Amino acid sequence: MHTPIPAKPFLKWAGGKTQLLAALTERLPRQIRESGIIEVYVEPFVGGGAFFFHLKSNFTVKRAYLLDINKELILGYRVIQEAPEALIVLLKELEAKYQTLNSQGRKAFYYAIREQYNQQMYHFNYGSFNEDWILRASWLIFLNKTCYNGLFRQNQKGEFNVPHGSYDHPTICDADNIRAVSKALENVTLICDDFLGSKGFIDHGTLVYFDPPYRPLSKTANFTSYSKHTFTDEDQIRLANFYRELDTKGAFLLLSNSDPKASNPDDNFFDDLFAGFNIERVFAKRAI
User: Fold this and answer.
1) Cβ contacts of 106 within 8 Å, gap of 6 or more
2) What is the strand order of the sheet 60-68 is part of?
3) What value does the mean pLDDT take over residues 1-22?
């Protein structure tokens, strides 16, 4: 009998899937919808993880592999997986300090944390879990909850470069959700890698959801800076080729992206790239 785990993303994330969860769930294989069981789930661009947490709340997911090329993001997941209570302590301290400050004090505190966060990167040990990871994860969540538009963005050096936001009462420490996320991450393997790193975990019957950085709909909508690595049209083609390879294995495949036809009816980039697969268009609001 399935025990729901009511976790939700612990970070705000551009292109998040919360408003598309129903549409995605409708497109799951019938045998998964009917049995309520997912033997193996793989998500090579986990991002905020909205769909993964939705699946954990509504299905029995026996094994899962979550990947992202953003090492800061995977660090955050690992800390919540392994040390949720220690993280909660640090987040409560940051929240208490932030809430006592006036608007100018909050702004100064934000930029001081951002500077420490960026400078720490240059001498940080990303290779093995240690107490420094917990502090860094607390800074990551603090910056995400108090920055402009809740956006995660890095420059080409890998530095977090989003300005301060103006929220009156941001929830910096959502202890209940951090504990729920930690519970949801049991029996989950977390990997920092390009999407091709997921190949070894995917076989016949594996459920795979691809949510790559969206292809910009215009020159001014060019947001793909979830990490210092850009995601180009060549990468979209690389991904489509990988998708076809996995299809020959008999994996259950689901992918979402932006629709270039929304701004240019003659742009057949994805229609051509995924010719032969089912392509369905759904509507979503985008703030970024």
Assistant:
1) 98, 146, 164
2) 188-192, 60-68, 37-43, 207-210, 252-255
3) 83
